[in-house]
Amino acid sequence: MLSKLLAFIVGLLFCSYGLKAQVYGCRDIQATNYNPSATINDGSCVYPVTNVPIDTSMDLAAIVKESSALQKDPSTSTQFWTINDGSNSPQLFLLDTWGNVIRKVWVKNQVNTDWEALAQSNTHLFIGDFGNNNGNRKNLKVLKILWSAIHSTDTVSADTIGFYYPEQTDFTSSPDNTAFDAEAFFYSNDSLYLFTKNWKTLQSSQYVLPSTKGYYPAKLRSTYAVDGLISDATYDTASKVAMLLGYKDIGLGIYTCFSYLLFDYQNDDFFSGNKRRVELGGPSTLGQTEGISFVNDFNVAISGEAIKKAAWGIDWPARLSKFSVKPYLVHYLSLPQYSIHSLQNNFWPNPVQDQ
Q1: Region label for 186, one of left (φ > 0), alpha (ψ between -120 and 50) or beta (otherwise)
Q2: Residue of 160, 255, 176 lying closest to 211 (CA atoms)
Q3: pLDDT by residue (tens digit) across 22-76?
């Protein structure tokens, strides 16, 4: 009996220690409410207004003036794939580091209903044909293409991942007034993560899809008030840092451009951790920001669609711009879990087998 009592007391002590050891709060030293005692991020970090300097910005080739996505080619850090949005040809365009088109790849078994995003795994490129400005589409889908095919031929075929939003019951056309538009996604852990462009509330909802061929309900994970329209997303596998890109109408149809850094989150709920908004500038320099991709070492590239408003004398070309977000991740990158993720990328072969 005494031994059971002692075991019970010891158990209570361990539980008490565990509870005391876990402190929820803001773990980012750059936040205004940083808690140095916090061991678990509760997503409460608040940040000062952050304006990110653009390192370089250059015109995109006229053939991709409606660039709606950007994805670094996995074989190089100087070339990017982009696409034009809806009603254009079903083509992929390879850009060099100066924004020139150096290659075109035709997707022969698909049409471009409204291509809006690109994502990648080690083996495949994904095209998000899920633009839905009117809120009435019932043929939302993701196209899946082998990288090996893209790198070896100029005409490829794509598998289809179809999906729907279970929360949507009304498909009445309502231009620029729907909660079920999307232009942003990325691949992680065998799944696709979509971020909606809610025209009504300026929120974004995170949905999850399988990355395999089929037809699925998109699973809602969480929603966050981003105060703008999300137009693309990118993800760094090693650090598990995600970025959203967007713009906000500031009047007269002119937009200011921004991004969100999403990091130190829980269980692939990208809105559960730090959500640092960074302001990028105006469309006269960046275009209408539509594509984003990590390049290397937290350097980022974005593409902006051309903007033409003849009545106001505006004729701004499509742009390719680059900047760094590493200064805003210094504390996170020093945390133990990031060091582990970073180290695993230096193993060869990866995954490691017997040595």
Answers
A1: beta
A2: 160
A3: 999 999 999 999 999 999 999 999 999 999 999 999 999 999 999 999 999 999 8
